Amino acid sequence: MTKNIYFASDFHLGSPSHSESRKREDRIIRWLNAIESTCSELFLMGDIFDFWFEYREVVPKGFVRLQGKLGMMSDAGIKIYFFKGNHDMWVNDYFTKEMGIEIISDELVIERAGKRFYLHHGDGLGPGDQKYKVLRKIFRNPVCQWLFALVPPRIGLGIANWWSGNSRLAHSTEEVFNGVENEWLAVYAKEQLQKAHFDYFIFGHRHLPLDIQLTDKSRYINIGEWINFSSYAVFDGKDLTLNYFEK
Ligand SMILES: [Mn+2]
Predict the structure, then answer these.
(1) 2 alpha carbon to ligand 1 midpoint, in Å?
(2) Edge-to-edge strand list for the sheet holding 218-223
């Protein structure tokens, strides 16, 4: 049987409410059940959780089905990667210890079946968004994380849930395509192509499924999100396609 590589991101579990998130989590589990027999590697490319913060002895409640499923897939020999997104960059060693998942902090370059992939959640890349780029440095600073960990979870997670309730998802409007020249991740990908060849650039973060031909040999695929689209990409050893689950 051919083995595939799957890419998905931006589940934003926890948002906008517990019941909505649970429905989405169930759909994700159905998707994982559907793909696992053909899956050799699974790339979870950021913003899997709308908020995640890991204390030394404590992790946030919830999302137990996803964690159990990933643990079982990993135990069955499927290699799973978890990219830090802008909503869930504070993962520590819990996913690795409990589920055998490899954590990726920034970009990851891989080669599979002779194709070169450039993988990244997509936050903080390309032109513009200076405010976020500064915030990202602060949020990713180990001292800031250490200080936040001193705040009791009841207060820390309370602030976080308030913050997450104010994010763009809570006032969810569907994203629209800006045209290739204004799609900052396409601009970023083109810059990278000046330095090295990649067959595929795969990003999340944009919340809009996109499949853009950058040159005759290179494509930018945005894997979208799971609130409106349930979109994901699959590489079957020959070609990469953007798909929609239960659509
Ligand atoms: Mn996101």
Answers:
(1) 31
(2) 108-112, 115-120, 200-203, 218-223, 209-215
pLDDT at 27: 98
Q: At 44, phi and psi to the nearest 5?
A: -95, 110
Residue 9: which CATH number? 3.60.21.10
Q: Which residue type does 127 have?
A: P
Per residue in 2-22, pLDDT (tens digit) is 699 999 999 999 999 999 999
As for how many domains the chain has, the answer is 1
Instruction: Give me the domain span that covers residue 85.
Output: 4-244
Distance CA 227, CA 207 (A): 9
Among 195, 143, 137, 164, residue whose Cα is nearest residue 60: 164
Per-residue confidence (pLDDT) for residue 145, from 0 to 100: 84
d(CA 83, CA 117): 15
* Residue 146 CA, distance from chain mean position: 24
In the reported structure, the alpha carbon of residue 138 is separated from the centroid of ligand 1 by a whole-number distance in angstroms of: 19
